[in-house]
Specification:
InterPro entries: P-loop_NTPase (IPR027417). It comes from Echinicola soli. This protein has a single domain, classed as 3-Layer(aba) Sandwich (Rossmann fold), CATH 3.40.50. The protein is built from 8 helices and 4 strands, in the order E-H-E-H-H-H-E-H-E-H-H-H. Helix 4 packs across helix 7.
Length: 164
């Protein structure tokens, strides 16, 4: 069974860059990124926020892909924007993982406020930039559901048998 790696930080602090440098091309890792998946499926970031049907397609594909990867032994990397600092959601996810005996890692990416501000200003308006704060609530909903599905699968004994 893989582990779950949470990469957190505020806007412009380098979460996506950290993931690209440490996990993107690394075999055995699944990057849970709703925004990038939306671009792959629908061609842009904007529809993620404005079209509920397209959003549901992204949610379902992300859930299926993430569960399949995890059940196949991959590590799951989750980027999560901390809006105003510490967030109870991360602690809740880690506690859930602990109860399921899933190993976790937590990388908190930080930089000074001025650097983050410059990064956001430079990236804002470019087609490749979509702040993770825009899909923070979606990440919570979808990833919480994924953890619940993992728990149910473990309760049924499927994961224990598959990964032995």
């Amino acid at each position: 069974m893989g582990k779950i790696i949470f990469v957190t930080g505020g806007q412009g602090e380098g979460k996506s860059t950290f993931i690209e440098q440490h996990y993107l091309e690394k075999e055995g890792h699944y990057i849970f990124d709703l925004a990038k998946l939306n671009v792959e499926l629908h061609g842009d970031y904007a529809s993620f926020l404005s079209d509920e049907d397209k959003q549901m397609v992204v949610w379902n594909k992300a859930t299926g892909d993430c569960l399949e990867a995890f059940m196949d032994g991959a590590n799951i990397v989750v980027e999560y924007c901390l809006g105003a600092g510490y967030d109870e959601e991360i602690k809740s996810w880690i506690d859930q993982c602990k109860k399921m005996e899933i190993e976790t890692r937590w990388a908190q990416v930080t930089c000074n406020t001025e650097t983050a501000k410059k990064r956001i200003e430079k990236a804002w308006g470019t087609p490749d930039y979509f702040s993770s704060i825009n899909y923070m609530e979606d990440t919570v909903k979808v990833f919480t559901g994924i953890l619940e599905s993992i728990q149910m699968t473990k309760n049924l004994g499927y994961m224990d048998n598959k990964n032995q």
